[in-house]
Inverse folding.
């Protein structure tokens, strides 16, 4: 990607990512907060893609999209007011939270500006890049499969626990009168 194209993708995506990340804490709906977080993390994936880090960009897009959709699904299923009609507040201890966020943001900005970043891009034939690929697709594949199966069983178990009657299939209160 040319430097102009990189800048045209990076800066709008980075600004939009920060805006959607901020909106996560400004909404009173858990469902909207989950979807805004999904948008923020997807934009982060595009930022990585713009910076020629294809592996991390695609990994973020794939993993976070599945994770955030699952999280939103569970929030809608289990929260007493997922739509935000009761006006809940998503932030706690606002003064300290703002102070910590500003300090961390300034610290990260200083580190980003003062770091001596490498001038050249590592090619795909680099031994570290190949080693990561073989690690993910080789020895660690069983770990990823186990994690995916665990997530699937968790979703099925959550649905079964949330259904009427719960885990034991007991009738809901007042069902005998019908």
């Amino acid at each position: 990607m040319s430097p102009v194209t990189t800048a045209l993708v990076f800066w709008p995506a980075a600004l939009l990512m920060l805006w959607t990340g901020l909106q996560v804490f400004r909404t009173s709906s858990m469902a909207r907060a989950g979807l805004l977080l999904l948008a923020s993390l997807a934009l982060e994936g595009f930022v990585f893609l713009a910076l020629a880090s294809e592996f991390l960009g695609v990994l973020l897009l794939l993993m976070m999209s599945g994770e955030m959709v699952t999280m939103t699904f569970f929030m809608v299923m289990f929260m007493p007011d997922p739509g935000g009609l009761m006006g809940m507040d998503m932030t706690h201890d606002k003064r300290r939270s703002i102070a910590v966020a500003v300090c961390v943001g300034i610290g990260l900005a200083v580190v980003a500006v003062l770091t001596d970043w490498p001038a050249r891009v590592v090619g795909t034939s680099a031994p570290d890049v190949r080693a990561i690929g073989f690690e993910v697709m080789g020895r660690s594949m069983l770990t990823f499969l186990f994690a995916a199966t665990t997530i699937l069983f968790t979703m099925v178990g959550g649905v079964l626990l949330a259904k009427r009657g719960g885990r034991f299939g007991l009738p809901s209160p007042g069902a005998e009168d019908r």
